[in-house]
Amino acid sequence: MTISSSKMLRLVVLLVLAAFCAAQEGRSHCCSAEDRNIVQKQWSVLWHDTESSKVKSGFARLILLKLVEKKPEAKALFANVDIDHPLGGAFTAHSVRIINAIDMAINLLDNQEALDSALDHLADQHHARAGVKKEHFTAFAEIFAEALPKILDDYDNMAWKSCFEGFYGKISGKLDA
Amino acid sequence: MKILIVLAILAVFVAVTSASGCDKLQRLKVKSQWARAYSEGHDREDFSQAIWRAIFAQVPDARALFKRVGGDDTNSGDFVAHSLRVLAGLDIVISLLDQPEALQAELSHLQKQHDSRHIPDNYFAAFRLALGHVLPAQLGRCWDKKAWSDCFEVIAHGVQGH
């Protein structure tokens, strides 16, 4: 069976279009339904204990402190939540706020429309903070990805990576630099 | 005379501490019951929907406050995101109930976010009543009404600032 050249051309156009869509809609292509399942399941292990707030604040505190160690200029951005006293109430509450935003995003993974809206709101909140840069999110992403397998016995690197890439892209999407 | 004064002071002290409610044990109870009710994924979305529908059924005018976040349709992506944001805030204060300093910090953070929105007290009452119905529906028998109402008062006062 031979394919006429016009049909061939149509096929090529279609394939290019499909590849383009996949690149645009990275989440539907990567972060598949099973990826989302895996991320939700592996993440939920952290919250089964009543003392989850101690886990939450402790984990998020460490990540934020590592972040400002890596990007010292970012430390000033956390002055209003008293980063100089990381064990104090203000910074503890802030740490829980950040981890809860991540928790919210993970739990919304199977409601794309609501997830987009939630991430868009987070993007606005970060846009409003002068001095927050995309590179800070890149650093955060690296630290977070390194830290997770240390507290999760079950950790599927590919699933987490593909789902979280979309998160960071969206949250930092409105930053100027 | 002196003894009378001491007794009077003691009586006031006892009255104040017992009236405040939400003691340490109640806080632990609320924390663990909340963790179960809050659940995860789709269940959490349904839990949140139930609470917000119960609120709007009581105070339909409250929808106007949520126009910007899709309040006209509780199923919309914008509103689901918003309702979960609110519950995430509630989750933070509940889970910090046993870390007083951090709890205070979070309550004043939430107070600042709500101040400019001029939310009438009866909307908070509607939220409380909605929780009071959806929580036992979610948890069945293992739900302590008194602990919840005592601790919700601490939270609502913190967010309202009065």
UniProtKB/TrEMBL annotation, chain A:
**UniProtKB keywords:** Disulfide bond, Heme, Iron, Metal-binding, Oxygen transport, Signal, Transport
A single Gene Ontology molecular function, please?
Answer: heme binding
InterPro entries from the UniProt entry: Globin, Globin-like_sf, Globin/Proto, Haemoglobin_extracell, Mb-like_M
Q: In this UniProt entry, which cysteines form S-S bonds? A: 31-163
Q: Signal sequence span per UniProt?
A: 1-23
* Top-level taxon of origin: Eukaryota
| Amino-acid positions noted as binding heme b in the UniProt annotation, renumbered to this chain | 126
Globin domain location is 30-176
Q: Give one Pfam hit by family name.
A: Globin
GO annotations of cellular component type: extracellular region; hemoglobin complex
Q: Which family does it belong to?
A: Belongs to the globin family.
Question: What is the recorded name of this protein?
Answer: Extracellular globin
The species this protein belongs to is Stylodrilus heringianus
From TrEMBL, chain B:
- Superkingdom to which the source organism belongs: Eukaryota
Alphabetically, the GO molecular function entries are: heme binding; iron ion binding; oxygen binding; oxygen carrier activity
Stored Gene3D superfamilies: Globins
Here the disulfide bonds are: 22-151
The family classification in the record reads: Belongs to the globin family.
Which InterPro entries does this UniProt record tie to the protein?
Erythrocruorin, Globin, Globin-like_sf, Globin/Proto, Haemoglobin_extracell, Mb-like_M
Q: Which UniProt keywords apply?
A: Disulfide bond, Heme, Iron, Metal-binding, Oxygen transport, Signal, Transport
Give the signal peptide as a residue range, or say none if absent: 1-19
The name of this protein is Extracellular globin
Where does the Globin domain lie? Answer: 21-162
Q: Name one Pfam family in it.
A: Globin
SUPFAM superfamilies, per database record: Globin-like (SSF46458)
Instruction: Kindly list the positions annotated as binding heme b.
Output: 114
Give a GO cellular-component term.
Answer: hemoglobin complex
Organism, as annotated: Stylodrilus heringianus
